[in-house]
What we know:
The longest helix has 24 residues, at 240-263. The relative contact order is 0.20. By secondary structure, this protein is an alpha/beta fold. The chain contains 7 helices and 10 strands.
Amino acid sequence: xxxxxxxKIKEGDVAPYVLLPGDPKRVPIVASYWDEAxxxxxxxxxxxxxxxxxxxxxxxxxxxxxxxxxxxAMEELARCGVKNFIRIGTCGTFQDxxxxxxxxxxxxxxxxxxxxxxxxxxxxxxxxDHDTVEAAVQAAKELGLPYHVGTTRTQDTxxxxxxxxxxxxxxxxxSRWENFYPDLKRLNVMGGEMETSIVLVxxxxxxxxxxxxxxxxxxxxxxxxxxxxxxxxxxxxxxEDNIKTxxxxxxxxxxxxxxMDQAAGK
Length: 266
């Protein structure tokens, strides 16, 4: 098989189990937990490492921000033999019971992205593989991490849709934004991020396995308490400990899933 155009990888370069952070700088952090790790490729927003974690073959590829680049990465990873895709990212929450630093395990996603609609129509659900969700829950329990299981909202924008003016440049605002996030809270949507829906849709339609988890950085509604400019540098908690915890939980989830597969003779 020829070298993949965007990821610059080929068959044999990656393991059947892959973690998908967005930020390329997080890939070496993830790989630092492995027993063996080697650099594979770096092109555009996509950095790939492959190695072994506690006896489990594992890879990690960054997707960049949003569903379009995530879909490209997944297309090329699947062509190179990946069967299990787990997004590990950061997110906000719409729910007061979810606190900063809590892990969110997503069993489903609201499809407010555009990319997934090029693959599947609106009524098609974005749902996680059951074994992957269970593996993530087991990993969180054994690591002693606070966690929640539920639905995320995946959308293509970062600065749009806030209830009050001040999030988009120049004070631009749409009246329909006012109740969008409060309505998601009423619907018991737990998380808010930019990639999960495409991971869940693509793996389901391809007959592969997909899941997603994220560490909570802020309460999306509370982060814009007053009208005025939204300042993510102040609202989001990008502490090193959060990213390390996320990385370790991702690795442990892969290990749990691998052990399930071995026990089932897969």
